[in-house]
C-alpha cells in the first residue's frame, strides 16, 4: 500500500521540530543556534563585516592622530627629541640663571616638552614661555600650568623653534642635540638682546665661551652671553 505525504505537512513538521528544538535549548545553546542561523544569512554577514571594518578603521585613525605629532619631528633633518628634564637639571638651570634674574625677567624654553621647566621658572618669578612643536605636549603643559595656578606666568605656544623671534627674551633656554648647536649659535648671535643670556643644557655651544657652567653629565648646564665683536 502506498502512502502519500503532503509537502506542506513535511514543511510544518520541520518548522515544528525546529521551533521545539530552539525552545528546549538552554540559553547558551540557544545563543549558539541563533548565531549559526545569523551566519547563514548573507545580510547578517554583511552587517558584521561593516562593523568590524568600521572598528578597525577607527582604531587606525586614532593611532595615526596620536602618534603623528611624535613621529613628525623625527622625520626632520635635525630632530629635537622629547626627553623630560630631571629634577636635578631643573635645579641647576634655576641656580645658574638666578644671578642675572631681575623683577619681570622673561625666559623662553625652545622645545618645552611637557612644560615642567617653564612652570618651575614661573614659580621662581620668571615670566616664562615655552615653544613646542608637539600640540599634545602644548595642551598638556597648559593644563598643568592652570592646575598649579601659574597659567598667567607660564604660557605655551605651538611653534617651530627656528621660526621664533628671540629678541624680546632675557633668558633663552635650549635642550639641544649636538647636530643643531652650530645653527642655534648663529640664530642666537643674530637675534638675542645684548644683555640676554643663553642656558644650554646637555650640549654646549660649539664656539662661544661660557661665563659659568655646572658640569654634571646629562644634567650639565652652560651659561653664555653673546660675544661682542
From TrEMBL:
<dbReference type="InterPro" id="IPR026170">
    <property type="entry name" value="FAM173A/B"/>
</dbReference>
<dbReference type="GO" id="GO:1905706">
    <property type="term" value="P:regulation of mitochondrial ATP synthesis coupled proton transport"/>
</dbReference>
<keyword id="KW-0808">Transferase</keyword>
<dbReference type="GO" id="GO:0016279">
    <property type="term" value="F:protein-lysine N-methyltransferase activity"/>
</dbReference>
<protein>
    <submittedName>
        <fullName>Uncharacterized protein</fullName>
    </submittedName>
</protein>
<dbReference type="GO" id="GO:0032259">
    <property type="term" value="P:methylation"/>
</dbReference>
<keyword id="KW-1133">Transmembrane helix</keyword>
<dbReference type="Pfam" id="PF13489">
    <property type="entry name" value="Methyltransf_23"/>
</dbReference>
<keyword id="KW-0472">Membrane</keyword>
<keyword id="KW-0489">Methyltransferase</keyword>
<keyword id="KW-0812">Transmembrane</keyword>
<dbReference type="GO" id="GO:0005739">
    <property type="term" value="C:mitochondrion"/>
</dbReference>
<dbReference type="InterPro" id="IPR029063">
    <property type="entry name" value="SAM-dependent_MTases_sf"/>
</dbReference>
<comment type="similarity">
    <text>Belongs to the ANT/ATPSC lysine N-methyltransferase family.</text>
</comment>
<keyword id="KW-0949">S-adenosyl-L-methionine</keyword>
<feature type="transmembrane region" description="Helical">
    <location>
        <begin position="51"/>
        <end position="71"/>
    </location>
</feature>
